[in-house]
Amino acid sequence: MKKLGYLSMIAAASLAFQACGGSNDSKDTADSLNYAKDTTSNVMETGGIAVVEDDAKFATTAAVGGMAEVEFSQLALEKSSNARVKEFAQMMVNDHGKVNEELKTLAGVKNITLPIMLDNDHQRVKDDLQSLTGSDFDKKYVNEMVDGHKKTLDLLEKQAKDGVDSDLKAFASKTIPTVKAHLETIQKIKDGMK
User: Fold this and answer.
1) Alpha helices in the chain, H assignment, sequence order
2) C-beta contacts of 101-106 below 8 A and 24+ residues apart
3) d(CA 156, CA 173)
4) pLDDT value of residue 25
5) I need a surface site. Which of 26, 66, 98, 139 has the fewest CB within 10 A?
């Protein structure tokens, strides 16, 4: 009976979100679904969520950011003619692909709903990247990678310090060195393009 009530709550939250003119933003939808989950009862019995709201928001934000890194980098592999940019893009596809899978597995254990596609902001950036060619593409891609890695590093450091769930804190701490290395690499590429 509790499970039926939980499912009804999820459906109602989803419909209310869409009915209120909400965007089709995958991250917002995931956050809404996570918010509607019961955090006070057993995950396996009721389908509740096993983390506090801020930890769930960390997971959705990290997931959409990781997804964007991979999708932008796949475009760079197709469109860039700069060998350093292509090498970096391949590293992003490989490294963020692995991290995204780790987060997906962890979210599954915690019953956190993750976004399944880019949010509106990241989709706009991807659309912009798709419209560019040559050095214009490379500059935009590199700038997005620098900005994205700075934001991701801040997000991970905050979670590692302030997060409640020990598994998500450990995930953040473990991922920080990789993101720092990526940021240093892409910053050097950006500096070399000036």
Assistant:
1) 2-19, 26-36, 43-46, 53-79, 83-110, 120-131, 134-162, 166-193
2) 102/171, 103/59, 103/62, 103/63, 103/66, 103/171, 104/63, 106/59, 106/167, 106/168, 106/171
3) 7
4) 77
5) 98
